[in-house]
Amino acid sequence: MNAINELWQEGQENQETAVLRLITAGSVDDGKSTLIGRLLLDSKGVFADQLKAIAGSKYTRAPGQEYDLALLTDGLEAEREQGITIDVAYRYFATPARKFIVADAPGHEQYTRNMVTGASTADAAIILIDASRVTDASRVTDGQLLPQTKRHSTLAQLLGLRHIIVAVNKMDLVGWDERVFQRIHAAYQDLAERLGIASYHIVPLSALSGDNVVQRSEHTPWYGGLPLLSLLETLPLETVQDSGQPRFFVQWVIRHNGSGPDAFRGYAGQLQGGAWRTGDTVQVLPGGETAAIRQILRGVEAVEQALPGDSITVVLDRDIDLSRGDLLVAAADAPVARQDFEADICWLDQQALNPARWYWLKQGSRLTQVKVRAVQTRRDIHELRSVAWSGTLAMNDIGRVQLRARDPLALDDYDVQRATGAFILIDAASNQTAAAGLVRLDAAGAQPAA
Domain map of the chain by residue range? Predict the structure, then answer.
């Protein structure tokens, strides 16, 4: 019995190990997939049969007897054939200090939407820069980094990623020249200041050889920071966003025993933004009805309190009309439901934005229709500033728009509460994801200036 208890306790401790969700981003051929492969290999996260498989692959491009580590994440036939990343690949590994969920995002401009998908749930971004492609000083003067480096950094900043790490890769191809590293550092510092990135880390490394990835490299005596994995293990992690304002989208209405005397009606979903206790009064949006929480279930266990991030079932003290997509909030701080609002969007569809069309808007589990009334500004990816714009938005454009929803929506500013501040737009004809959006409201609830 003692042995069983010890195993159970060990399992509980393992489950409580902190998890860091991160994404690799940057331009084409910067070495994103190879870097993840190196992290997996050197952290003992790769099985022997996987190494054997990539060693015998007809698509290997590694020199000599080296492993082509990119094949550990590039699993699609088209990816291996072309030597590029097309779709986001998720990989999992762990060290004694932390667990990691890594998203390998493609670098090609046409797949920017895949990067947005991976970054939307990430805590940190590793922005890779290929040192061998910017050895000419004119390529980095005045912050002239590659466009995708700028675009991915912009998106990481807009999405509110808490940590940005700049990995200057392929330093071995420039002879570990400190001057090259310092030029790139100066270029990215200028980029960060113009984007409003308050802080970031920068590491010189070689993903292919493993220098400064897990172990410190003897080739960089001039670098005084941590190797990449040690840096990832020590990044401070915040708990699930807690704004003090509970938000609970109903995902599923659970019914048991029909209309019998022991009939059960509960509402399942994930709590965001704040804590709930039994007895708290909640309000249903957009309907406006109020009720008290009679019971909170985590799985089949009744609990007195639910915290942000908990997946729970809520039982109310009275039956009201609730269905998937409805939002439960604390009655004391219910947001105002509105139909007109502003948002920053990244247009992801090959078909340009058409202001004359209706699009489906998905916010949490809620689905309604919206129309883009006007485009106010467009982000110039080269000048890194928003410029007044009255035209449309094409694929990968980032802009501030005015929207009108068919039904009232409970909205929060994205920087305050992501659950009700983020949404996607869906093309009603093709069912393609057309845009990812971030609601922008000022503290008083009025619309901000563009």
Answer: 15-234, 247-333, 337-439
Could you give the 3-state DSSP secondary structure of residue 81? helix
Q: Give dist(CA 204, CA 134) in Å, integer.
A: 14
15-234: in CATH 1.20.1250.20? no
Pairing relationship of beta strands 163-169 and 358-363 according to DSSP bridges = unpaired
Q: Which pair of structure tokens corresponds to residue 261?
A: 């005397």
Asked whether 283 and 328 are in contact (CB, 8 A), the reply is yes
Strands 422-426 and 99-104: unpaired
Instruction: Output phi, psi for 274, to 5 deg.
Output: -170, 175
pLDDT digits (tens, 9 = 90+) for 312-326: 999 999 888 889 999
The total of other beta-carbon atoms located within 10 Å of residue 56's CB is: 8
Is the pLDDT confidence value at 81 over 90?
Answer: no
Tell me if 247-333 shares its fold with 337-439: yes
What are the residue ranges of helices labelled H in 350-430? Answer: 418-421
CA dihedral of 418, 324, 434, 88, whole degrees rounded to 10: 70
Phi then psi dihedrals of residue 50, to 5 deg:
-65, -40
Residues composing the chain: 450
Question: How many Å apart are CA 102 and CA 92, to the nearest integer?
Answer: 6
Q: Is the peptide bond before 286 cis (omega within 30 degrees of 0)?
A: yes
> Rg of the chain's alpha carbons, rounded to an integer?
24
| Mean pLDDT for the chain overall | 80
Query: How do residues 231-280 score in pLDDT, each as one tens digit?
Result: 999 998 865 556 678 999 999 999 887 666 678 889 999 999 889 999 99
CB atoms inside a 10 Å sphere around CB 273: 24
Q: Do 300 and 294 contact (CB within 8 A), yes or no?
A: no
Instruction: Tell me the fold of 337-439.
Output: Elongation Factor Tu (Ef-tu); domain 3 (2.40.30)
pTM score, whole prediction:
0.77
Query: Quick one: residue 445, left, alpha or beta (phi over 0 = left, psi -120 to 50 = alpha)?
Result: left
Take residue 32 and report the two structure tokens written for it: 């994103």
* Separation between Cα atoms, residue 11 and residue 21, nearest integer Å: 21
Please tell me the CATH code under which domain 247-333 is placed.
2.40.30.10
